[in-house]
Amino acid sequence: MNLSFYKKKPQSGYVRYLLTAMLLVSYVLAGAQDGGVTVTGKITAAEDGTAIPGVNVYLKGTQSGTITDGEGNYTLLVNDSKGILVFSYIGYTSQEIGIEGKTKIDVAMQASVEALNEVVVTALGIQREQKSLGYSVGKVDGKSLTTVAQENVLSGMQGKIAGVTINQIGGVGSSTNVVIRGAKSLSTDNQPLFVIDGVPVANGMNNFRTMGDRNEVDYGNAINDLNPDNIESVSVLKGPSAAAL
Fold first, then answer.
1. What percent of the chain has pLDDT over 90?
2. Are strands 107-109 and 37-45 parallel, antiparallel or unpaired?
3. Residue 75: which pLDDT band, with cuts at 50, 70 and 90?
4. 0.70 exceeded by the pTM?
5. Are the C-beta atoms of 74 and 68 separated by less than 8 Å?
6. Would you say the C-alpha torsion 136, 141, 144, 145 has a positive or negative sign?
7. Which of 99, 135, 145, 236 has fewest C-beta within 10 Å?
8. Closest-CA residue to 160 (of 242, 231, 244, 240)
């Protein structure tokens, strides 16, 4: 008679339950040992008390962080109950608040009063600081275009930008000629490139059509159709570097 002994295989469900319980206890003990805490709160604007969504909330010196939801609420699990929370958002002054064992921290953020540097829109929507440009920029405010009513927006810019010659070649409704720092082309069209809200617009001078018995009619150029009341500002980029854009 052969007698053999076999180790009884434990039930797998019981083992999984036991391991889960052990991991949970270890996690709780580790959190208690490291001083971990879950911090919640709400971020509002100090001036009117409205909730601010998308505020960055993180533990200083770490990559542990979160952002506020649509109602300005946040929840963040940190492993240092004596750490410092940093609250930052564009347009508001950043704040640093010590946790000090607290589980609820509400913050009223103050609007930032820092002035932004003046920027110029170059080429197709590219923004640059004016002081960093390597070429001259002339600027006309939209209000100055409507102070004295003109036939079109280009006529309203006449005499307001150095180095820019603007004149109407015919009667009412005819094309307006714009030349920056003199004629540079051997063709019949020396018009600059116009970019309106990032969209290039042709402003050629070849808008003549023959009507009747060889009578040419000038139908005007495209920029003449703009309403000066809808223009916030006009920037004129001058020089070879600007032309390269």
1. 20
2. parallel
3. very high
4. no
5. yes
6. positive
7. 135
8. 231
